[in-house]
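[Automated response] Your request has been received and processed.

Submitted sequence:
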Amino acid sequence: MGSALPIGEAVPADGSLPAGTEIDPGTDFGVYLHVPFCRVRCGYCDFNTYTSSELRGARQDEYADTLLREVALAGGVLGGLAPLRPASTVFFGGGTPTLLPPGDLARMLDGVRDTFGLVPGAEITVEANPDTVTDAVAAELAASGVTRLSIGMQSAVPHVLAALDRTHAPENVATAVAAARTAGLDVSVDLIYGAPGESLDDWRASLEQAIALDSDHVSAYALIIEDGTKLARQIRRGDVPAPDDDLQADMYELADDLLGAAGLDWYEVSNWSRGEEHRSRHNLAYWTGTDWWGFGPGAHSHIAGTRFWNVKHPAAYAQRLAAGETPAAAREIPDAAARALESVLLRTRIREGLPVAELLGEGRHAVAALIADGLVEGGAAVRGRIVLTRRGRLLADAVVRALTE
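Generated structure:
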């Protein structure tokens, strides 16, 4: 059910933002819609998700109506400060959004459209488990305005899926991709590498399958062991081995080689796309620090420098909204130092990099050494940008420390 929420100051019951908040009409506005339901809990997952036995009275069939109450609340809060900005991106994440009927997802999207509007050509993404995508589901999503399906493939190898507690049949990934293509949707597939028992050959097989699907976008994430998960307990007991850092580095390099050769270029440390037009614009908004409102239990938001986050459990979320109150649990306004650190942390991860001018004095002094160590591209630095080399992507945390200490 996810890690603990951060500690912050209380949010007024009406959800109003701090006095003096000024909305920049030129800043893009994104919407995240969290659907916290899963059929089973994967052993590695630390997201705020719930199986049917964990809902404690919250109902999936009422969820769309509950979330729409928060959409209406957000419209009132933001509309009281400035003319409402249409959403540039909408992202249904989870959990498994496609556990809800497509009609519920369509109503949620209609609520966003009716409240805020959508910019022409807005990117509308739905995450999906391969087992939940049929021709009919994909067609209904496309008809509602969805433009992009992000399919949780994770691996093409049965024993790796079993190690991750993934229950979908590997062949259903191709079925889901075909359904999305028939409906005219862009397709992204998500992969995870470094699972217990996964070899480099296993990982190659998954990459080759993802490439054979002719995906527009591939996300490939190294398995991270999160405290409190089933997998963390298994490793602590010695039941399965911990991820091998050297093997994961080899896997990353193999991904970059194979995806690059197939015409998918990296644009963020863990993301590759077939041309700029297929990049995830929603995730780029997170990495570049624009505004977004996250709807749903445990969802986080960032509006004009204020960060706030919702209560985690779907039942508590529904109770607050039924009472006419914000579901926000707390908020904070990061100071200048925290914002500078976050900018370095996030913007060094993307291909366009971080402007050297944004570095403080000590960080600027570290650039020459990072170039000499092969972690930062020298030519880009001369042009005023900090851009990671492939070796730098593997050691991104070390680069960030050098630029901020």
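Summary generated for your ticket: The chain has a mean pLDDT of 94. The chain has two domains: 29-288, 335-405.
If you did not submit this request, please reply to this message.
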